[in-house]
Fold each of these.
Amino acid sequence: MIELNQNTPVDAVPAATVIVCRERDGEMEVLLLKRNPALKNMGGIWVFPGGKVDAVDPGETIEAQARAAAVRELAEEAGLILSASDLFDFSHWLTPAIVKRRFATWFYVCAVTPTHEVIVDGEEIVEHLWMTPEGALAQHRAGDLAMPPPTLVSLHDLAEHANFDALVGAVTRRQPPYFFPTIIQQDNGMVFLYPGDAGYESADPDASGPLHRSISAEGKFRYVRQVEWQARV
């Protein structure tokens, strides 16, 4: 799923991802898209809508361009039309330097009504589904829903909130969490250490202290967080 780079590190490409939520039958659901299995990069993986920032995306700053890219990608991949003002900051991910394809990705969260129709492009994206965060995580643990660490981690975050209003209240009070993983290869898989983990700076997964990491084994990931998000200043 993750190709490591044995040569000179490449620069990270700016990108944007949109976590689309809706409330249905008293539960918050999230939109997941399945990437075409024929794609070389993460083929067959379930992700949130998103993609690279293009030159056509307007904005005076890279973050403004990322918001524009998020809106554009959401329309292209899922047929959902929203505006940049509908997006709330959620998190920011920077791919490690040892990975072949690197992205600096702004994650946003937004809401649509149950009447919004999702239309996938049929090329890059071939399927979609709405699931509760808890349901998606359960299917991943069962081996039925393959996903990369950023999707997994985000679903855990979403699962902590009973509804969209509670989610927005939380994300607007906090500094968007920053994820720049340190990857440790082990015999039975990989460990992704995130800021706040006791072993993050030393790249030591056995360091004593709080844990903030994803652990891979047999194509599945497990997320552990024992740190608090930083409040906005």
Amino acid sequence: MTKFSITNPVFDAIRHRRSVRSYLPRPIPQHILNAIIKAGNMAPTGHNRQPWRFIVVENQVVKRKLLQITLPLDREMLKRLKAADPQLYASIRASAQFTPEDPIFFSAPVILFVIGTGEGTERIDCPLVCQNIMLAAHSLGIGSCMVGAGRRGLMDDPEVVKAFELDEEETIYPPIVLGYPRFSPEQPLKKKPKIKWI
């Protein structure tokens, strides 16, 4: 377990936050979601441009549509990965064991998308928003997981492009699933940071 010599609420949130992949079927109140998004919106950004917007998906029909797009592409990737990196393949398969019917979004009550152009500092700004969101959610007892596979194929689907009102310059960042956790995972072993002091 990673040890911090400093303890305060910020360090505690960083230390205890986990990627949660099993959720209770309990909705998140809208005022809580708004607070989490506002925390994301407070992320630092180059020249205060704030080049992002948010899409909150709670509708079950839309969730099924997103899964229909991403799941076949994920299965193709897993086939290739099984031979190339068996250890990573096993880890991904294990992470989906609690929701085999939805190994992408883990049947989470909310799928939250951050949308930005992906140009210039925005490639850094938008991921900072995502980190704020996950830490804020954790502080409120809500689990989260940023899902790389959750954006596969979405920008090639005309229905998604229309529903998300995507401009040509915009990109979809990996979505964050949110919900009340069934349990909190154990902390994975963390490597010691490699530091060079000059």
Amino acid sequence: MKKWFVLKVESGREEAIRDALKARIEAQKAGDLIGQVLVPVEKVSEIRAGRKRVVERRLFPGYVVVEAEVDEEGRIPEKVWFLIRETQGVQGFLGVPYDRRARRPPKPLPMKEHEAQRILSNVEGPQDAPKIHVGFKVGDTVRIREGPFENFDGYVEQINDQKGIVQVIVNIFGRATPVELEYWQVEAM
């Protein structure tokens, strides 16, 4: 029976550590004991230097998710434990202190089923439209970068994340006027 576990790894090197762990699994022929090794990411649409682009953002920086075999007691077999622990960059299992004097590896806590399913749905699910990353929140002062109100300042009244629409209150001829813009037409001040 396989369960999902979270590994603490060096932040910023999640993909490299995942690849190294997969290579060790193949070299040790432990594919039947260790299933998937994942770095949970999501696609985010953002504006940088005036250009809209889609980037992958790690959901949990510094962590990798591993599907590993467990015995009747809920322990990971020693071969699997040491294979994972001895991979360069892996700091240990989440929630388990590492004791070098222990005769047996401690019993790491597996993820709850609903937690694992939520992470897997983000990783394996259809990613048709990337999430929109808006660099400001309601109440922030912003400047309009494009459109008929270019270079006007205002404050954010509403943000519609699904459509990427931002409602900004702009002072025009002494009156507060709501203006609906796309998120990329506005920049935080």
Amino acid sequence: MADEHPLVQLARKTIDLYVHEHRRLRPDEAPPGISDARAGAFVTLHTASTGQLRGCIGTIQPVEASIVHEVINNAISAATQDPRFPPVSPGELHDLTIEVSVLHPPEPIESVDDLDPAVYGVIVQQGWRRGLLLPDIEGIDTAETQVRYARMKAGIAPHADVTLQRFQVDKYV
């Protein structure tokens, strides 16, 4: 849609092409106005008519050559590989809202007192287990709730020792 940010247009175009034609969008087909910077990025899908989460996949650190590559890969994964949902069907495409969150580098923190769930996302880690929650999620109003959900996503016990990191995002809709 014309009023969407170019990164959201990129994600939408990628998902539409992949769902309809099973073809990956080439980076040179990306909308104009996207930098070639590298960053981690999450693509979040919601069903517009219900507001329900429909998929969310991303990378904490950049793993691709540019943000364009990162969004293309994560858009396809959010639409087709989120284990919580079946793949998006062609009939759902008109009812999807798409957000792209570009992550700033995470920084270590000492405790939940250093979090504000409206401003910061959180990464909770214990050994190889790691859970992430983006900032500004509806229903996540306290740092304790944010950390609890991140622990659950990672399969980390409620009172186990963990390391915490926080990060900010630039969110595009």
